[in-house]
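Q: Could you fold this chain for me?
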Amino acid sequence: MRLLVFNPENDMALASGLSGYTAPETIERYSRSQWMLPRLWAGEDDLVWDWKQDLSDKNITEVVPWGWSKALVYRLLKAGVRREVMPSDAMLDGLRTLSSRVFTSKLQRELGLDVAVCNTWEEVEIFERRVGTCVMKAPWSSSGKGLMMVSSPTARGWMQNTVAREGAVVCERWMDRVQDFALEFTVEESGAVRYEGLSVFRTSPSGRYVAHDFVTPEEQQAALMQWVSEEEVRRWCVWWQKRLEADDIRAFSYAGPMGVDMLVDAAGKINPCVELNWRMTMGHVALLRGKNEQK
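A: Sure. Below is the predicted structure, expressed as structure tokens.
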């Protein structure tokens, strides 16, 4: 039996790196109130966990969470799930490294993007003088959270607190977006990468995720093609498939859903690597909803 788990606080759990991590009360309450979301992609024989049910009498052979962390493994163990059906500690440590924006910055540099890993405010200022308007990002966060504009009056204190907590900040040149989108993939156990589809979504002016407004794949495609060509999107899809299958990424032994967040600016220029999400994403959910609508 497969066990499906909705744990959207996963990125915060990865940031802590602790087995005993507990999300802030408001986030915990939201997460648990939405526990039924995986029913959208559950099979007839799958069990969706409500975070209360004892699982020791269930024959769980596979766990499919929103995302993996040591904190989730700890909670599943307490609920009665066998340790052998979950990733090892070594794999979880690898996933935490893979999920860090510090790791992502290596790929961004390959793509010629302006990015720097900074440990001091002086390093941030040097980067800003070189590239212009820039944004700082905490190593472990997603959906546009954990961001701070360097021009903000609270930026220095935020940066110092983030470095003390997570070891560094990642600085990137800011791009004024007209459209956010993502390429959604599935990484197979073999390391092969399968493209699932395009995901178009809205963000706030600061880059924080707001919503997916388009349901069907055709609607999402049409929304994005206002700004870029289908050929260019296809080119990036091929590039990412090959890059995700490279040895340095396969060494982490990750298998499951992943998404590459991208954006387009007013000049039609694509930023091909805004974020990498090594977990389920709302883009995957939007694609699943679209497929269900077409049935």
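A (continued): The mean pLDDT is 92.
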